[in-house]
Amino acid sequence: MGTNLSGHVKDAERRSGFLKGVFPSLSGRAIEDLTRISLEVHFNEGELVAQEGSYASGIYVVQSGLVSIGKHATHGRDKRVLRFLAAGEMFGLEAVFLEREPVNVQFAKTIVESKLIFFERSNILGFTKDYPRLFADVCRWLAREVIMLEFKLAREAVESMDRNLALLLIALVHKYGEKEKIGSAIDLPVSRQTLAEMLGVSVESVMRKLKRFRELGVIATENGRICVVDFESLAQRARVSDFYLSIIEETL
Q1: Alpha-carbon span 247 to 250, nearest angstrom
Q2: In terms of C-beta density within 10 A (0-12 exposed, 13-18 middle, 19 or more buried), how is residue 222 classed?
């Protein structure tokens, strides 16, 4: 029993440290109380976390892994991925804080094996009454979301496939890049289908563009991994700004 208790204490300490990074406006007793009402949940690759139209039970914060957020078409089985959440990012806020029926307006599905921290709706609402500073961190995160949505809408409306893929690869390298002798590898099993969903294009279009990037010496591919060989050339193709880079440090 002593070993189990020690393990639970270490898990709580680790979770507290993570939550402090997500909610920097909170400290001390507030983080302890927030940890106490949290639940760590594990999902396998490709597992549904929340179904569109189902009851929204609370807020999830991604602790590790990658989660896609999207919507299904009104008719048929087509779906569109709207955004992706990496560590420190959250979903379910609208169902908790808006005065309406708590229903998921989007679906959430893991791209890779992921760990999430869950806060039940009534618990987090009760927490905000005692610690309203939580809203400062929620507003900060939502502001980043608005900025990234504007980037996404502008890219899809006016930018070329060439630039959009370059921007996406830069974002993935920044979040999941693993330095190697020849460059930065995306050490994440992101399928070509997933890249296509991220960009809102066909898999064939992604394959053609990746092939072109390989021919230009910008990337190399092996065993499903993508290695950015020439990051400077990739950044030039993306015409990426320092402001964009500063945002993707926190938001994919």
Answers
A1: 6
A2: exposed
Domain boundaries, the chain: 2-153, 160-248
**DSSP 8-state code for residue 77:** S
**pLDDT tens by residue, 168-192:** 888 777 766 665 555 555 655 577 8
Q: Tell the residue number behind the tokens 């920097």, with chain if given.
A: 24
84-126 tens-digit pLDDT: 888 888 999 888 888 778 888 899 999 889 999 999 999 999 9
> Is 0.85 surpassed by the pTM of this model?
no
* Cα angle: 82, vertex 85, 86; to 5 degrees: 150
Indicate the CATH number for domain 2-153: 2.60.120.10
- The DSSP annotation for 157-200 comes to HH--HHHHHHHHHHHHHHHHEEEETTEEEE-S---HHHHHHHHT
Cα–Cα distance for residue pair 35/29, rounded to 1 Å: 10
